[in-house]
Amino acid sequence: MNQVFDLQRWLLVVSEHGSRNRKRYLLSLMAVAGLIAGFYSFYILASRRPIPPFLQSLNYFIGLYFSGCLFASMLFDDLNHGPKGISALLIPASHFEKMLCLLLYGIIIFFIFYTLVFYLVDIPMVSLSNAWGAQWHKTSSEASLPFSPSGITNVFSSREEMMPLPFIENLNVYLFQAFFVVQSAYILGSVYFRKFSFIKTTISLFALFFFLFLYFEIFLSGMMPPNSWYYSLTSWLVHHNQTTEYVLLPGWADELFYFVLGYPFAFIFLAATYFRLKEKQI
Amino acid sequence: MVSVSNLHFSYGQKNVFNGLNLSLEAGYIYGLLGRNGTGKSTLLRSMAGLLFPQKGTIEVLGFNPALRKPDFLQQLFLVPEEFYLPDISLEKLLKYQAAFYPKFNYRQFEKYIHEFEILGANTLQEMSYGQKKKVLISFCLATNAALMLLDEPTNGLDIVSKSQFRKIIAGALDENKCIIISTHQVKDLESLIDRVSVIDEGKILFDQTVDFITKRLLFKISFDAYEVAQSLYSESSLRGHAIVRNNPEGEEGKLDLELLYKAIITNHHLIESAFKA
């Protein structure tokens, strides 16, 4: 039998993990649903208006980042608790199969179920806000203006009215891409840190961003001519002879830079998680 | 089956093993005895691949345990002192976990559960600590794994269950299996184990088969002051003096594991001398 990956064995690992954690996952999803509903309830009562699509998207992404990272930071939590860790490590399956199983639950299943739960709460709450908003509208000072109910947001669409920052093109694509990178970092944190992995990973990520900030703002800016500064990570503004010039990297370099910043980081974090799992001792 | 060679291991500054050597074969029940904190659990975890040697090698069933390969893990089962069982029913435990072990025998499991008299509870979490432990021991034995490691298995078991445990373990052994039981409650292993290994200060202090021990040593109650004075170890009791003495005539006797253990811990050189003669 293959010692790295065997489909039948992996399916056993997946069903075993599901049986072990079903209750915990269901409770977590209910908690997420409760938080989303709580936020909407507060908004409806405070504003007395329909929930606009951009706010729904904002709520979706804030919830996705917060719950996704919290969930990711607990993914390998069992390994940090002696008895649970022993039980998990001694299941007759390879490290690769065990990790793939956790990634299935932590990334794919989480994402599907979070989105499902979001819409299960979002659709009735938006309908409720439309219905109540219409009633309140009749008695408000804006009664003479026509009432416009809100539609349901599509978080997978880049249409301007759906996104919280409409001036950034394809914001949702960047947000999803960044989410999977950040989530991978939290997955690595969950196997790397024995305690408080969510907090420690958050601090580590802030330290990393601070280092990048210093690198761009102090080290690279120091190499630029006077009166010039960074406009974005791949473009500069250079003030020269009373004119300001916009200096851009070539298109391919720009794309390559953002590609490297995105996908490989997730891969590196997950590869590091795998090797860390292999050397885990209890 | 298990070969430990020059094992070194420490937790930070605290040395646990300093060149430990041990060889174990199939077909025996080994009793790994020792005081608290002498490294019994660490040794079992190292054999299971949960801890890696800092120096030296461990080979179990021809595998390097640290790699934790599926083929290796299928042939090994560890019952840790502190264990975890998920909050599911017995049926689901079997459904989801037994499939990992190719030699798992459902009938055997039911037989052990019946013998341990585990009744009533719907899920594992509703069971008492002792009941859960009995479920785990039953599961371990039903896997028919080649190597079974039991760390303080009788902790939390009542007197009747301890006796059932001894009976069940004795019946579960065959020539292809090796059972290692680590405990500091030596009385619980009496008339069960085939070989006694005592671990102390990071080394194997004593390692002999029960047959050989009873050939070389005699355990008895003595009222004879001379015999007590000549013994390898003695302690007074209300019944007289419990002694361990050489057995040059090869008298038939029964092993008193607790007395032997105390004798080894007190003066293992003297006890060892009986085996060198």
State the main characteristics.
heterodimer; A: 282 residues; mainly alpha; three-stranded antiparallel β-sheet; B: 277 residues; alpha/beta; Rossmann fold; 2 domains; 9 helices; 12 strands; 33% helix; 29% strand
Describe the structure.
Chain A has 282 residues and is mainly alpha-helical. In chain A, strands 1-2-3 form a three-stranded antiparallel sheet. Chain A has a domain at 7-196. In chain A, a hairpin with a 2-residue loop joins strand 2 and strand 3. Chain A has seven helices and three strands; from the N terminus they run ααααααβββα. Chain A has helices at 7-47, 53-73, 82-89, 95-139, 171-192, 197-223, 251-278; strands at residues 228-232, 235-240, 243-248. Chain B is of the alpha/beta class and 277 residues long. Chain B folds into two domains: 2-201, Rossmann fold (3-Layer(aba) Sandwich); 211-276, no CATH class. Chain B is 33% helix and 29% strand. Chain B contains nine helices and twelve strands. Chain B has helices at residues 40-48, 70-73, 90-97, 106-115, 129-142, 159-172, 210-216, 225-230, 257-276, and strands at residues 2-11, 14-24, 28-33, 55-60, 76-79, 147-151, 178-183, 195-200, 203-209, 217-222, 233-237, 240-246. In chain B, the strands form three sheets. A six-stranded mixed sheet of chain B has the order 5-6-7-3-8-9, sandwiched between helices. In chain B, strands 2-1-4 form a three-stranded antiparallel sheet, with helices on one face. In chain B, strand 11 (233-237) and strand 12 (240-246) form a beta hairpin. In chain B, helix 4 runs antiparallel to helix 5 (129-142). Chain A binds chain B through residues 1, 3, 6, 9, 12, 15-16, 19-20, 23, 81-84, 86-87, 89-95, 97, 278-279, 281-282, and chain B through 45, 48-52, 68-71, 73-74, 76-78, 80, 82-88, 92, 95-97, 99-101.
